[in-house]
Records
---
Amino acid sequence: MTDVEIPADHPRYESLVTRHRIEAGIEKGITSRQGLIAQGRGEAFDYLLGERTIPSARAAERAAAALLLSADHPVLSVNGNVAALVPEEIVELAAATEADLEVNLFNRTEERMERIAEHLREHGATEVKGLAGDGRIPGLSHERATVDADGIGAADVVLVPLEDGDRAEALASTGKTEIVIDLNPGSRSSRSAAVPIVDNIVRAIPNVTRHARELSDAPIEELQYVIDSFDREEALEAAETAIRRGSFDDDGDAEADGRNDDAEANDE
Ligand code: ATP
């Protein structure tokens, strides 16, 4: 995972491990340096959310699983941060929902595309899309628009974690159903998603997989019920309220101790 020694009893263990995974991703040539800035921004929101999966995110994760399972052609988009943080977990989610994996980069270079595809194969992926680059998302200029025609180009449901707001908006306007994972409930990406998951990707992806496994034999009516019961506006509002209320005590000090202890419990 990382070759940096972090004591497991450190109160901010998960956060530090995540940070080192991004660093390792940069060293391996799969994550861009801008990825560090995105990570820093995400960390700040995660800190305010208490570094846990809030109930509205749990509902979004279940709705996302139901959407992926009921889709004709689901695709999971993978960028440099996603590949660095959850390579094995995203491959598992693709298997659990029979979704395609597609490498999709804001700053597209063939070298980084290849490295990410190889990194995913090392973590169990059999087929990785994105390298053909023979399709386009309408409304975007240059390389930012490039996708695979038989991947994201042909998808009906797309999971776009940690996506640039401009691209998320353009993708949503094509009529595809978009699931976004983004810790900022006010970002354009979260705002343009049919299902915004306001949670750290390191918790969100395994949670969606777990829900997908639980729902794998569910009839389509039950999947539809899970999807229809999810209210995106309510979820975004709940996340904003959680951030405003914060995990700060009455004196305004962050509750630094044991922030991660209840992460599992909060998602049960
Ligand atoms: P906007 O959508 O407002 O235009 P942006 O395009 O500027 O945002 P980026 O700087 O590319 O967004 O950052 C991507 C987003 O990913 C940020 O909103 C950040 O909060 C979020 N993010 C970063 N790391 C994580 C993570 N580990 N898990 C979930 N979300 C994350």
---
Amino acid sequence: MKDKKTFKPCDLIIFGALGDLSRRKLLISLYRLENANLIEPDTRIIGVDRHTHASAEFVEIAHKSLQEFLNDKLDDKIWKRFSARLSYLKIDLTQMAEYQQLHTVLDTENRVTVNYFAVAPFLFSNICQGLAQSGVLTEESRMVMEKPIGHDLKSSQVINDEVAKVFNETQVFRIDHYLGKETVLNLLALRFANSIFTTNWNHNTIDHIQVTVAEEVGIEGRWEYFDKTGQLRDMLQNHLLQILTFIAMEPPVNLEAKSIHREKIKVLEALRPITRANVDEKTVRGQYTAGYMKGKAVPGYLEEDGANTESTTESFVALRVDIDNWRWAGVPFYLRTGKRMTNKRTEIVIYFKQLPHNIFADSFRELPPNKLIIHLQPNEGVEVEILNKIPGIDEHIKIQKTKLDLSFSETFKKSSIFGGYEKLVLEAMRGNPTLFLSREEIEQAWTWVDSIQDAWRHSGDSPKNYPAGTWGPVASIALIARDGRAWEE
Ligand code: BG6
């Protein structure tokens, strides 16, 4: 048996340790990793923020955050172990001299420093300079950042250039939390470990593919950020395009980061541009109005707290995407994502082609296509829709649609299914870049999305309305119906 790989312990610095991202996500994920015994015993977690706190006070804040945001009960023994790793430093991130304090806590000889930038992007450059000037960085140091990495190609280049002055590309870990989701990774296994899918994964057998990322949440006090961003840049530029690359990429040579990044970039390069000339037939933008979510009245986008009532920002987007390469020629991908939709549902549906001839006309005038449905959330799993004979001794064979249904939680009862963050934070501490985004990928994705944004700006049209609690504007149904297809119910 192979030895279990050991990883060097880390000093994980969370810049912005008192902020939302740190309190709601990072500390929770780290605690869960602790609970699963996945953090190296000597790893330490250093919170950095600009407010004055002693380490003991930070431990108290972390405890409160866990009580508030951890869904499970806090285990005293695990908490004791976890809290022993925590310490705090007060640093004003804009004051270079203050970074010197890091010398008092870091141990760059025996530990790798992982710098987690859990702050707004305008501070990234300050942190990079502060770290560089204080002399705490080594070749082993890493930095972790997440979206928004810019709001278009140019602004993302500015951020990446700033970071590149201090860290080389192999030291940079860009997070898209969808890549930590089990079912996204399972796409690799489904596609490249199963001959029934590997041989059928192309334009010969697949008719079209749908990706739906429907959210129940509205703006939730994030108006400032969201209104400048919109659903295209908030969700589609990153999460949906990442899912798309995993569905569409060619088999990578192996599971190394370089091989996977290379194949994903090729998909992004092959996306047919959506431009001023074709934007109307390829895209639908929506904005929710007041409606009902599970029977409860909710305000419209323009009535949310802090709203600018003139806003034309989209909270929903649906696209028809074409990939111009040999594998996918003639196979449209329909993507849709929106806030305040009927329920939270993230799924991929692969529609296989209909058979050319039907000998079961007693049951179906037209044979329904086989479907492979991959549920990303809320309940991870994979279903295959096939036709089976209804048992019986009728004169004619009768068939009906049936499902081969694999629920992850049922099937893999013993292994816990971690959320995206846990997996990604752990991989960043281990230094495994496979699940992180390369600069080239992000820039390619922005180039494609910028063209849509430009076409929308140019058209001057407003988003179409849809009541909260529905599946989006009627125009999104028309988008797919024009091709003789319908969204998966
Ligand atoms: C974030 C977006 O990246 O993803 C949010 O900024 C969105 O607006 C969230 O709500 C959705 O994540 P998940 O994991 O709940 O699908």
